[in-house]
Amino acid sequence: MSNQALLKAFKVIDAIALGHRQLKDICIYLDLPKSTVHRILQGLIEARYIREVHGIGLVLGTKMIQLGIRAQQDMPLKEIARPYLHQLAELTLDTVHLGIKDEDEVFYLDKIPGKRQIQMRSQIGDRLPLAGTGLGKALMLDMPKTEWRRLILSQKDLDIDVMMKRMELYSKNNFSYDLEDNDDLVRCVSIPIRNKYGNIIAAISVTSIKEYMSDDRMKELIPIITDYCRKISEQLN
Fold first, then answer.
1. Residue 103 backbone zone (phi > 0: left; psi -120 to 50: alpha; other: beta)
2. Residue 108 near residue 97 (C-beta atoms within 8 A)
3. Cα(164)–Cα(131) distance, rounded to whole angstroms?
4. Alpha-carbon distances of 52 from 21, 48, 61, 73, rounded to whole Å
5. What is the pLDDT of residue 38?
6. Band of residue 124 on the pLDDT scale cut at 50, 70, 90
7. Among 160, 222, 229, 233, which has the highest number of CB atoms less than 10 A from its own CB?
8. What are the chain's domains?
9. What percent of the chain has pLDDT over 90?
10. Taking the alpha carbons of 53, 178, 153, 169 in that order, is the dihedral positive or negative?
């Protein structure tokens, strides 16, 4: 493959990552002939870098997701975020988590225990369903509603109508809650970390038991966690 052909393939991947889901949209965005883009897409789909989802269009494939996860793990996200996670844990007295998306799961990249002597069962390296945790729901905010529904329905104990309404609220306001969805009496507030393009690359949650997580306190935590996510994003970018 020539350098020009390789660059065009990367541009097609970038276009899809930015939300251009249809062949026509990609051609217009890149100002490339339909035949050229179609040929590139065929190769990318065959190699699992791109896949086509009914009702949505073209999305990043499993190979790209695997590479993305590896890149996120290789980049200094954890090292950059850790001092801010410690500060947030000191400020709130609660357990702080850092997570990234891995397929349909949230991967717990880091955890800073709180000061309240409350043991949270989460561990660094844990993987949990996206729709079953506040951290995971923060990573879902920019997904199409069809993906929300699929992920919620994969959890048999979640009410689809209630959760869809919550996700609409969360998506509009760039936060998410865990309202005892995963563990009884455990609540959390989570905010996504975005890159310079506005894409969600990770999320932070502040977690405690219901006794310390009233509705009012959860609302108060949103701007605090958002500020720390912004600081981490600025360091990464």
1. left
2. yes
3. 10
4. 9, 10, 8, 26
5. 94
6. confident
7. 229
8. 3-63 (1.10.10.10), 75-236 (3.30.450.40)
9. 67
10. negative
What are the phi and psi torsion angles at 107 (to 5°)? -100, 120
What is the identity of the amino acid at 162?
V
Q: Helix, strand, or coil here: 49?
A: coil
Q: Note the pLDDT tens digit of each residue in 165-181.
A: 999 999 999 999 998 87
27-53: burial string, b at 16+ Cβ within 10 Å, e else: bebbebeeeebeebbeebeeeebbbee
**Dihedral pair phi/psi, residue 56, rounded to 5°:** -120, -50
d(CA 96, CA 237): 22
The average confidence (pLDDT) of the chain is: 90
pLDDT tens for each residue of 43-52? 999 999 999 9
Could you tell me if 61 and 50 are in contact, meaning their C-beta atoms sit under 8 angstroms apart? yes
